[in-house]
Amino acid sequence: MKKRLIIILSALLVFTLVIVAVIYYNNQNNTPQGTIRTFEKAFNRADVNAMANCLIPELKEEVNTIIKKADEAIEAPVALLLETIPFLSGILDFKAQPKVNMEILKEDIQEKEASITVKIKIDKTKISPKADINLIKIKSKWYIESIKPKLF
Question: What share of the chain is helix, strand, coil (3-state, %, to 5)?
Answer without folding.
Answer: 50, 25, 20
